[in-house]
Structures are given as C-alpha cells and as structure tokens.
From TrEMBL:
GO biological process: proteolysis
GO molecular function: aspartic-type endopeptidase activity
Entry superkingdom: Eukaryota
Matches recorded under Pfam families: gag-asp_proteas
Name listed for the protein in its UniProt record: Uncharacterized protein
Length: 177
C-alpha cells in the first residue's frame, strides 16, 4: 500500500490511478514550457459547445441567460437540446417527437414538476439515436407537455455518459467509459 501523502504527485491506488500516476510522473519529467495534455483529454473527454441562441417557444431565438443549450442530432435530425442538471429524466414534446420521427409508445405515467399539478406523460421514445459533439449513443426520452422547451436532457443522460457540465465555460464534457 502506497502512502499517498508522502509520494510527490501520486493520485491514489488502483488501475486507473496507476495510469494517472504514471502520467503525473511522466509530466514531472517534462522540460519547463513543454506541451502536454490536460486531464480531460487524457480521460477521453468529448466536448460539445453550447449554442448562443435558444428557442423562445415562438419560433424565434434569443440569448439564454443561465440556460445551457447544445446542438445535437436526434434520429439523424438537428435539434437544440437544453441541458438541465435539475431534471431527473430526458424529455421531448410530442410535436418535436413527431418532427424527429420518433416512435412514441405507452403512456399512463405522470409527470410532477415543482410548483405545478401532476400532468400525464404522453408516452416514451426508447432507444433514440443521439449525436452530441463526437459522442453517439442511444437515449430514452419521456414524451411530456412542455411550454418553452422542445428537448431536455437531464440526469438520466448525464449519468449514462458520465458527463461534466461546466456552466462557466458553457460546455458539456462527455467522458467515454
């Protein structure tokens, strides 16, 4: 067992930590001013830039203060997707699901938002192909009535892809597993 506190630059134990420790030791040997990769690149992070404009619900666009939107492709079609770290699931409106050609199944479940009455979900769109930056995978969406947003990705997606959300830099970093 290695005493982390007494080993200069050591990160921890285990296979992943050993790889990082090797990189740290390698980094310590680099000459001053040498170029090296940051830790997110080492961990195979992908970066999706936020878009500067967001939908207002009327087909117009405006700068979104405090909201993070990313350009994505759902079912091969472009979509602006709001990243919501406060949403437990991923949501899409019925109108957007139709535009994207998603197969909606089921229903009978309910959605309860803060300070609102429970509303019935309109179904689910399962295994939707989604591209976000360089990341590509399958994502499940609940089809729900929403006033201002067409597509929302929440904690379900963020946990699925091991994402880091950075509001400061308007970015979503997707860590490959």
């Amino acid at each position: 067992m290695t005493d982390v506190s007494s080993t200069k630059g050591r990160i921890g134990q285990g296979i992943a930590h050993d790889k990082l420790n090797a990189l740290v030791e390698e980094n310590e040997e680099l000459e001053e001013g040498a170029v090296h990769m940051g830790s997110l690149q080492i961990l195979n992070a992908l970066h999706a830039k936020a878009v500067a404009k967001v939908p207002t619900g009327e087909g117009q666009a405006s700068t979104g203060k405090g909201l993070l939107y990313v350009e994505a492709k759902l079912n091969g079609k472009p979509a602006q997707v709001m990243v919501d770290t406060g949403a437990t699931h991923n949501f899409v409106t019925m109108e957007e699901a139709k535009r994207l050609g998603l197969k909606v199944v089921g229903g009978g479940r309910w959605l309860k938002s803060v300070n609102t009455n429970a509303k019935p979900l309109q179904g689910a769109a399962r295994q939707v192909e989604m591209c976000l930056g360089l990341w590509r995978g399958l994502v499940d969406f609940s089809v729900a009535p929403m006033d201002e947003f067409k597509v929302v990705i929440g904690l379900d997606f963020l946990r699925q892809v091991n994402a880091l959300v950075s509001p400061y830099s308007n970015a979503v970093h997707i860590m490959e597993k």
